[in-house]
Every structure is written in C-alpha cells, then in structure tokens.
Amino acid sequence: MNKLPKIAFPVIIAAVVLFIILVKSAVTIGSGEAGVLYKTFGGGVVTEEEPLGEGFHVVAPWNKVYIYEVRQQELFEKMKVLSSNGLEIQIDASAWYQPVYGDLGKLHQTLGENYLQRVIQPAIRSAARSVVGRYTPEQLYSSKRDAIQDEIFVETKKILEKQYVQLNEVLVRDVTLPSTIKEAIERKLKQEQESLEYEFRLVTAQKEAEKQRIEAQGKADANRILSASLTDKILQDKGIEATMKLSESSNSKVIVIGSGDSGLPIILGNQ
C-alpha cells in the first residue's frame, strides 16, 4: 500500500479547517427575517448599521448573527381587568406588531430576543387596565367597545415607540362581563327599548289626534264663513243667474217670471 506523500497531510488539514471556517462563517437569512451582527472583538452588537437582510452572508467565524422575524406578528391576550366600579371584566384582545427594522440592533442590545414577554405584553396589559378602568360595565357592554380598542392602541403605542417596536393595530375581540351583571344590563336595555317604543306610539297617537282636530276645526270654520256669506240677496242673484243659463238650453220649457218664492222664476217643461 502506497503511503500518501507527507505534503498531503497538511493540505488535508488545511482543507478541513477551511471547510469548518466556511461553515461557521456562512449565514443564511430567510424570508421576512433580518440579522443582528455581534462582533466578538469589535465592540459587540452592531447598532449603527443596517441589519443583515435576506439571503446568504459570510461573517467572521468568531462573530455571531442573531436572526429576528421582522414581519408583522400577532399577539393574543386574555386579560382580567377592573371596570370603573371595581367589577372584574375579561378582555380578549390581539395586537399586531413588528420590530422597527432600522433599530433591530438596539432592540437586541436593550431587550433581546424575548422582547415580546419583556415589553409588549406588559405594555398592552397596562394600557388595558388603564383604559377599562374609566368605563362602567354597561358602557363596555353596549357602546364603548370601539372606544376602548382605540384608546388601548394609542396608550400601548406610546410605550412601544420608545422600545424599538412598531404597533400596527389592537383588536378587542370580546368583552366578557360577570353573568349577573350581563343579565341585569340586558334587562335594563330591554326595558329602555320597550319604553322608547311606548313613547313612540304615544307621540304618534297624539299627532294623529291633533291632525283630526285641525281638520275638523277647518271644516267648521269653512262652514261658518260660507253660512255667514250667503245672504238673501246673494241667493236671489244666484237663482236668477242659474235661470238665465237654463233659458238658453235647447230643451223645451216654460218659464214663469216672478212666480216663485222671493220672486225667483218657476221653470215648467220637459225634455
């Protein structure tokens, strides 16, 4: 068996070392991700440069790359908070968030990879407690859900803007009240609805009665004015005017002038 030349051993060793270096130096960053470079002998976390983007990168083997997801992510939270009168309310909410891409190095340096538990969850819980504590259970149940959603978003966003995290939306999916409070609110709302319906029917009936009264008064006034205007002289003139029109008709007739009551003509004849 032929022995390998002595020069072959150093070449093999060098090749193995080079392979190991390449393996440790190669970094592939996937879609929707970015990398934070940590320089072991160069000042630690790189914060003043853009993070490493998607694709293949070669770094010094003694350095490290921490990979973060930079796409929008969703956090689901079930929180028990107190209303303005001290009753316990359960809020089911979700938050859409993502790290600020240009500040990824600062995020890694100050909060680390578990920034979700360190800052986002405490921020949204604190905002929810603050906002819900301003409202009664009845307001939360009926008309203020959109309002508390917007207010929780605004307060959480203020906190996270200082923590290199971008909050895109907060959605309040459900507000759960104690069953006894919920039933009492539903009874009250039902009573209010019935009261409004009764008031509507009452107002409608009053308007209809007023309309009929006005119409009757109008007819009475018209009859009174007409009766007052029909004097004997006017009636006589109207009778003469009607007689003159009848006399012009082609139908045969006999007109006796001055033979009727009040001197009106009497018309005799047939067609």
Automatic annotation (TrEMBL):
This is Prohibitin family protein. Pfam families: Band_7 (PF01145). PANTHER family: PROHIBITIN (PTHR23222), PROHIBITIN 1 (PTHR23222:SF0). InterPro entries: Band_7, Band_7/SPFH_dom_sf, Prohibitin. Keywords: Membrane, Transmembrane, Transmembrane helix. It is a single-pass membrane protein. It comes from Seonamhaeicola algicola. Signal peptide: none annotated. It is found in: Membrane. SMART domains: PHB. Residues 24-189 form the Band domain. The lineage of its organism: Bacteria, Pseudomonadati, Bacteroidota, Flavobacteriia, Flavobacteriales. The chain crosses the membrane at residues 7-27. One of its GO terms (cellular component) is membrane.
